[in-house]
Amino acid sequence: MRRLAIACATITATVSVLAATSPASANPYHLIRWQDTGFCQIWDQSVPTTPWPANFAVVSEELPTFDAAFSYKTGLLNNGTCSF
Q1: Contact predicate 30/43, CB 8 Å
Q2: CA-CA distance, 2 to 27, in Å (whole number)?
Q3: What are 83's strand-pairing partners?
């Protein structure tokens, strides 16, 4: 039992050190608007695929955080560019 506890502690310490030393990845977001419905959606660029179906347009610049994308989407909803 003692060996298992030591092994778990070692693995936890190793993972913590690796997580602390790895560079932070920026996952930019875009706001896309579906052309047939006008519905806007936040799209995470770290997803390796493209939205489907392909009848969408990117309606925002690259946004650094989900919160920034959500605020941008709220503005487009308020001015009527996007629908619910």
Answers
A1: yes
A2: 41
A3: 39
